[in-house]
Every structure is written in structure tokens, then in C-alpha cells.
Design brief:
Strand content: 25-35%
Shape: globular
Strand order of the largest sheet: 3-2-1-7-16
Largest sheet: 5 strands, parallel
Helix content: 10-25%
Radius of gyration: 22 Å
Length: about 400
């Protein structure tokens, strides 16, 4: 503490870290705030990395960066330390070790370090045939958009949100697209179940994508020692892995924290094992307001905003400031668009034991379909897929009922 002002460190310059800083400033905390980010960019709209095609230009990197920029905050109490990675933490003595060789002593800490893409090739991003690409950062997106401009063949491993949005984007650029999903029947199966996954796979293939599952997909997945498909896996094909993520927790090892899946926190985003330490965003695993006595970790933009706000307010409260701090009451919701089909998901459909078609037909997704997910006959989730807004009023009414449970 210098001059009586607490020093607050925020590890992570994404939206969760930014929202934590904004919440602290709104609470008028008399403190200095330092945000550390290992990228050179300030906060940007990460979900937007796969949302739109950019025209050919001499400076596509600048166009993407400007388009996805998120308004930050300018305040004399806030310092940005970009291109600076936090490599270690001594939480007992409240000291961080930085990639610059410096140490940073803090009075309160917000962990918002997020996640990184999971990859199948460990130790290097090179396999026998080509370089594996992932898409998480603005720099990743700039490279991939440049590659897609050449309208080459693209192979995408995975069938989650990033994979489906990338496939849609690549077709807009005029690429030949192959999707590989070895473990499941189609997109979002782990959330929405087999029937909807198969319907979405059918929709994607109708839009010109080769979608392979099971053994057919496994045969074409790139492996360091597998030389069985040299032609398919040649340098002429851009290969992108979108097979999940890994929480960035390694720098926290040795502090006695529960890091089994991100950083475990309580319903106020406090890390139970360490006083004055909080976590938010993709890395935070908190008590699920929707499922009794279980923890959840969500990697959605809205979740990062909500938990970042709450972490900032909780820090303010811990420093003795009058902050309206309520426990996490996050209402899960996410939306994406795949080949013109808008997919909206709310609640926690993962835990369903039965599903019911409220409107529409899974065989005609473009005409709209609204699905209720039930557990013990109680609605726990809703999914709405449509090219328009035919059943939007019904969807809104279902959301009201969903929130009531």
C-alpha cells in the first residue's frame, strides 16, 4: 500500500478483467488498479472474431482490430500493462512474477486470465504435414482471415460454436470446407442432445460443408505420426483446431488452490483459500445457481461480463466500500448464427432427461423450431433455431417461465 491507496492487480485484459476494473471505479474505490494482459491489444470483442467477412485491403489487421474494439476506460487510477505475462504468483505474500522479470506486490487480486485453445499436438504447433491453427486471439483471427482470403480448402476439427461459425465464415470467403467431429453426431450435442445435433449437421451439409463424424472423421484427424493421408493433410489445406479450451491456471500452482477445472470461487467470486483474491470470466468455477450443490464454469461473453462486474464489486466490498454485492445469479444464455440460422440457447439444457418440440420441426430448421428441455418434468432449458423470428414471442414467454424456476 502506497500513500494509503490499496493496489489492485487484475490478471487478464479481456472483458472480465475490464468489467472488474469498471465496477471498482464505479464504486469510487480509492485505489490504484493495474490490468495485466499478455496480448498487445486492449480489450476487444472476442466472440466477434468469427462473425463477419472482411474485404480485401492493404491493412486487414487494422480493419479487424478497429471493428472489434471494446470501449475501455481512461482513468488516472488505472494502468494497463499490455504484452506483459504474469508467470507466477505467491498468494500468501501477495506478489506476482512478471515476464519482464519484475515483481508486482498487490493488496487485492482479480484472476481473469481466461482460457487457451486445446490442441491435439503437444509441445509444438507442427505435425508431420502442416501447422495447426487455433482461433482465440485477435492475432489468430488476423492470420486466419488473411488465409481465408485466398479461398483455399479449410479443414476444421471440432463442431462447437467457434468451429461452426468458422465454417460459415469460410464459405462466405469461398472456401471448400470440411468439418471433423470424431466424438459426437453433430454440433452442440453435449448441450442440446443427439436429435438437435443431427439436425444441425444436416443443415450444415445442406450449405455445402463436408461434415464427417466417427471413424470417418478420425481417419482424417491430423496426428504427428500418422502418414496415411498426406494428400488430404498437405500444406494446401488450412487446418484449424476448435476442440475445446484449457483454463490458464499454471501460474497459480503451488498456492493450495482448487485448480481442477479453472479456479474455484464462492458465489461472490471470492477464492476461498486466499483472502483478497477473486476470479472472474472463463476461468472462474462457481456454485451453479441452476443446479443444487454443483459448480459450473462458463465460457460465454455474458458470463464474463456478469462475473467481472461481481468480482469488482466484491473487491470494493472487501476494501470497506459500500458496494451492492449479491451472490451470483447468472442466467445462462448464448446466441450464434450458422449459415443464416440463428441459434439461441437459454437455461441449462445439459441436465435434461426429456425434450419437447414446442413449435416447428427439426427437419425444417429454416422454418423455425422451438425446443423445451425438461428434467423431472420441470423446464430447465430452451433452444430456438430459426432464420427469422417466427416464434420469438413464444420464446420470450418460455424464458419468463424458465427464470421462475
Amino acid at each position: 500500500m502506497t500513500g494509503g491507496e490499496p493496489l489492485i492487480g487484475i490478471v487478464g485484459s479481456g472483458i472480465a478483467g475490464l468489467r472488474a476494473a469498471k465496477a471498482l471505479l464505479r464504486c469510487k474505490v480509492d485505489a490504484r488498479i493495474v490490468i495485466f494482459g499478455d496480448e498487445v491489444h486492449r480489450t476487444y470483442n472476442r466472440p466477434g472474431l468469427t462473425k463477419r467477412r472482411y474485404p480485401l485491403s492493404d491493412t486487414p489487421e487494422m480493419a479487424i482490430a478497429e471493428d472489434l474494439k471494446v470501449n475501455g476506460v481512461e482513468h488516472k487510477a488505472l494502468t494497463w500493462r499490455l504484452d506483459t505475462r504474469v508467470e507466477s504468483a505467491d498468494l500468501r505474500n501477495k506478489v506476482l512474477g512478471l515476464s519482464t522479470g519484475e515483481s508486482f506486490a498487490y493488496d487485492a487480486l482479480v484472476i481473469a486470465a481466461g482460457v487457451r485453445p486445446r490442441t491435439s499436438v503437444e509441445g509444438t504447433n507442427e505435425c508431420t504435414f502442416h501447422t495447426h491453427r487455433t482461433l482465440r486471439s485477435l492475432d489468430d483471427a488476423q492470420h486466419i482471415h488473411n488465409e481465408l482470403q485466398t479461398s483455399k480448402k479449410i479443414t476444421i476439427a471440432g463442431a462447437g460454436f467457434v468451429a461452426c461459425e468458422l465454417a460459415s465464415l469460410a464459405k462466405e470467403y469461398g472456401c471448400e470446407v470440411v468439418m471433423l467431429e470424431a466424438m459426437r453426431n453433430g454440433p452442440f450435442e453435449n448441450i442440446l442432445g443427439k436429435r438437435i445435433a443431427i439436425a444441425l449437421r444436416r443443415w450444415i451439409t445442406q450449405n455445402g460443408v463436408t461434415f464427417l463424424t466417427g471413424d470417418s472423421a478420425k481417419e482424417l484427424l491430423c496426428r504427428r505420426s500418422d502418414a496415411s493421408n498426406l494428400e488430404f493433410s498437405s500444406n494446401r489445406s488450412l487446418f484449424i483446431e476448435a476442440i475445446g479450451s484449457v483454463p490458464n491456471v499454471e501460474w497459480l500452482q503451488g498456492n493450495g488452490l482448487d485448480l481442477s477445472d479453472g479456479v474455484r470461487v464462492d458465489e461472490y467470486m471470492r477464492v476461498p483459500e486466499c483472502e483478497d483474491v477473486f476470479a472472474a470470466g472463463d476461468i472462474a468455477r462457481y456454485p451453479d445457481p441452476w443446479t443444487t450443490e454443483s459448480l459450473t464454469r462458463m465460457e460465454f461473453w455474458k458470463n464474463a461480463i456478469d462475473t467481472g462486474d461481481l468480482a469488482g464489486r466484491s473487491v470494493a466490498s472487501s476494501l470497506g466500500h459500500d458496494s451492492k454485492t449479491s451472490r451470483i445469479g447468472y442466467f445462462p444464455s448464448i446466441a450464434t448464427e450458422v449459415f443464416g440460422l440463428r441459434v439461441q440457447i437459454a437455461g441449462n439444457p445439459k441436465i435434461f432427461d426429456s425434450m419437447e418440440i414446442a413449435c416447428g420441426d427439426l427437419d425444417q430448421l429454416d422454418c423455425g423450431v422451438l425446443v423445451k428441455f425438461l428434467r423431472a418434468e420441470v423446464m430447465v432449458g430452451v433452444a430456438y433455431l430459426d432464420k427469422g423470428a417466427r416464434f420469438n414471442s413464444v420464446y420470450i414467454e418460455l424464458l419468463k417461465s424458465l427464470k421462475a424456476h
